[in-house]
Amino acid sequence: xxxxxxxxxxxxxxxxxxxxxxxxxxxxxxxxxxxxxxxxxxxxxxxxxxxxxxxxxxxxxxxxxxxxxxxxxxxxxxxxxxxxxxxxxxxxxxxxxxxxxxxxxxxxxxxxxxxxxxxxxxxxxxxxxxxxxxxxxxxxxxxxxxxxxxxxxxxxxxxxxxxxxx
Amino acid sequence: xxxxxxxxxxxxxxxxxxxxxxxxxxxxxxxxxxxxxxxxxxxxxxxxxxxxxxxxxxxxxxxxxxxxxxxxxxxxxxxxxxxxxxxxxxxxxxxxxxxxxxxxxxxxxxxxxxxxxxxxxxxxxxxxxxxxxxxxxxxxxxxxxxxxxxxxxxxxxxxxxxxxxxxxxxxxxxxxxxxxxxxxxxxxxxxxxxxxxxxxxxxxxxxxxxxxxxxxxxxxxxxxxxxxxxxxxxxxxxxxxxxxxxxxxxxx
Lengths: 166, 252
Prior knowledge:
- The complex is a heterodimer.
- Chain A is of the alpha/beta class.
- Chain A has five helices and twelve strands.
- Chain A folds into two domains: 1-101, Rossmann fold (3-Layer(aba) Sandwich), CATH 3.40.50; 108-166, no CATH class.
- In chain A, 23% of the residues lie in helices and 31% in strands.
- In chain A, strands 2-1-3-4 form a four-stranded parallel sheet. In chain A, strands 6-5-7-10 form a four-stranded mixed sheet, with helices on one face. A two-stranded antiparallel ribbon of chain A has the order 8-9.
- The radius of gyration of chain A is 16 Å and the shape is globular.
- Chain A starts with a strand and ends with a strand.
- Chain B has helices at residues 32-42, 63-72, 86-94, 104-108, 111-120, 154-164, 185-194, 208-216, 227-230, 236-245; strands at residues 5-13, 16-17, 47-51, 77-80, 99-102, 125-135, 138-143, 148-153, 168-173, 199-202, 222-225.
- In chain B, helix 6 (154-164) packs parallel to helix 7 (185-194).
- In chain B, strands 1-3-4-5-6-9-10-11 form an eight-stranded parallel β-barrel, surrounded by seven helices.
- Chain B is globular, with a radius of gyration of 16 Å.
- Chains A and B meet through helix 1, strand 8 and strand 9 of A and helix 2 and helix 5 of B.
């Protein structure tokens, strides 16, 4: 069972329906118990970093998510769900993240329209399991003002908007 | 490379897609879910659903419709019309919309842009502006579906909305809307140059050249169109192939 975490933000329904479409057992939940029992967890995006961390804290899920990731449970973080894995973000003031991946969430630089919004192509050098059935250069929809900058080599694919980012 | 977006717009009234000016061949454009699905399959980059009566009559956009659309449409979609408070936004996003478009309420209560972007993120708050030409190089903001003049300059309002946290401007020229004579390029350019967020040009698309013109000369990041697609004058794919031929990056 895949658990899509409901943290009162996020576009949970579209992720949920994506799993339904491929007939994967899926459940929307904000219970630690469900997360602990899940085979995999998904944290969808749409939301601001600070608010997301506040909501996860008040639902008592911060520790649960961290513990499950550290124990090796598959985790798919989409958009903001990826960003919160990092040490910190500068969105609406410096806010600490889960610190699973060392690095920062930064705002796109001057001279670019922000948010980076629309379909952009994604390149990878080496095929990781996530890209198993995705062609190199495929289009993905982006809609974000912040990007992640890992301080260690953890990147599997990049796209270009101003600079190359992950 | 980031591509330019083609966005079919579905004006909704009482749960049905309503026509532009010439009501032809609308058989299956009547149901918003069916129309949305068809556009999504044809390669539209995004969809916009506007409940055109909601603002005037203070009705809320139908969360129900959003849910039904989200079940069968797998491209990002924006919902607007009658959104006036945080709770409206939360309900619509939870029902499966990716973005919300706020018009009258954002102008009357600019704090709503700030609050909503702080909670849901800048990227899902679209500020819709309806503007009418006042004199050369100047356009005025109208509210309530174009029925109420504000005396405020459209470029100024766009700049303010962007500063408050809007992630995108959906800019409709009331002069061009429904004419099929082309977008208001001057207006689009004035706003696109004044703000640092994407601008969607709307109102006036009658042929494919109009789409290319407002992207090239009006500096639009995306183009919204209704009648040229609803009436099957052109398919989304045709439009994209045309733009590509004009040297504009598109997702094919």
